[in-house]
Amino acid sequence: RKVLLKWQIRNASADIKEEHEAELEVPALSAVWMDKVMLPEIDVFCEYVSYQAYEDGEEIANSTVIFSYPKYFRYQ
Questions:
Q1: φ/ψ (deg, to 5) at 70
Q2: pLDDT tens-digit series, residues 8-52
Q3: CB atoms closer than 10 angstroms to residue 62
């Protein structure tokens, strides 16, 4: 299965600061690790990553990740 992964760095207002994507070949009933992506410039209190996975143009998964404890993130 070919899976298209997209991820964005967003600010607390959900505006996109950076956007990236990668295509992976994922065998059935298995998982595939991507290469590690370092984000040293991210402000862990004001920015987060959102990501989506697509197969045949259809979104099959999505989520978000913050890099601080939730109580310290500057939500808007």
A1: -55, -35
A2: 999 999 999 999 999 999 999 999 999 999 999 999 999 999 999
A3: 11
Distance separating alpha carbons of residues 58 and 13, to the nearest angstrom: 26
Q: Which domain holds residue 56?
A: 2-72
Whole-model pTM: value is: 0.89
At 4, the amino acid letter reads L
The whole-angstrom separation of Cα 57 and Cα 5 is 11
The number of domains in the chain is 1
| Collapsed DSSP state (helix, strand, coil) of residue 5 | strand
CA distance from start to end of the chain:
38
